[in-house]
Design a protein that fits this description.
The complex is a heterodimer of chains A (187) and B (195).
Chain A lengths: L2 H19 L2 H17 L1 H8 L5 H15 L3 H12 L6 H16 L1 E8 L5 H14 L4 E8 L7 E5 L2 E4 L2 H20 L1
Parallel strand pairs in A: 1-2
Antiparallel strand pairs in A: 1-3, 3-4
Helix pairs in contact in A: 1-6, 2-3, 2-6, 4-5
Chain B lengths: L1 H22 L13 H136 L2 H20 L1
Chain lengths: 187, 195
Amino acid sequence: MSTLAVARRYATALVELTSENGSLESVEKDLSTFAQLLTSHDDLRSALNNPAFKVEERRAVLETVLGKLGAHKHTRNFVLLLSERNRLAAFDAILDAFNTQYDERVGRVRAQITSAKPLDAASVDALSKHLSHITGGKQVVITQAVDSNLIGGIVTRIGDLVLDGSVRTQLKLLRDKLTAGDAVGEA
Amino acid sequence: MNRTLLSTVGVAALVALPTLALAAGGGDSHEVPHADVGGLIRHGINLLILIGILTWALRGPLSDFLKFRRAEVKDQLEASLRAKEAAEAKFAELNQRLEGFSAEIDELRKKNKAEADNERATMLVNAERAAASIEETAQRTVAEELRRARRELKAEAVELSVQIAEELLTKNITDDDQARLTGDYLSRVEETARS
């Protein structure tokens, strides 16, 4: 079974369980915090995925970390289950699947906004409002990033939708158009 | 067998009879011979008898020999005649061929020349076709190479132009430009949202 399918299966089970007992929002926040922790601490991620450590040792580390995070018991049980079944390597994919299902349940979408320069709050708000219109009134959760390679402009990704207004892409389109024009002229 | 016996007796008689004839002459051999006509006659008779006996004794083999010899000579004559006729026929044939030989050589020369001319014409046509084909291929290749070179040159020019434009934009873009780009982007997203 592919990692994506496994992730989807675990995420579905967690969403259904936490929806039933009303802990969906808490678990979502816990998982998000835990994900940030893994991102910022590569040594922790390596240790949790290292088979040289015994299951009990990894479990002890996880319980300590999750205790300090004040994670919900369902979050704790879920992460420990992943560790016991050696599925922590697929944690990012599971979290993506969980977030997708969570967003669908609460009626919100995630947008990744990348710009050449940091955007001011007014521009982000305006963009969030327009994106909400585009997605049929859903709440838009925006994640921002700065990429100087864009030269200028903004690129927004919402699921499969990409709104590319970057100078880099404009230049690429211009180059493609000129090259295609040459090809047509030669034919 | 009888014939051989008779021949033997004949030969013996031939040896004995002259002696007997000499003895019948008187046996006075101590006398000086004079013109003895009788002796001559006896010798002549003896000679005739000898000839007759020889003729009689040898008539068979001699006849056979002569017959064989005649037949052999006849065969040889006939063979010579046939050889002569064959030689004459061969000579006539050769003579005839010799007469037609120069004509045959002329015909052969004409035929060879015609074939050579034909071959030459064929080679010429083939060479012209090959030359035309090579020329056409070369022209196509040159044209294709020109197109390719032009295409590559233009692609390089486009790439270089875009690269320069990118460098210039990166270097010279200002915060105002960024603000204007953001504004344009928001306007387009808003249009998208309304549509």
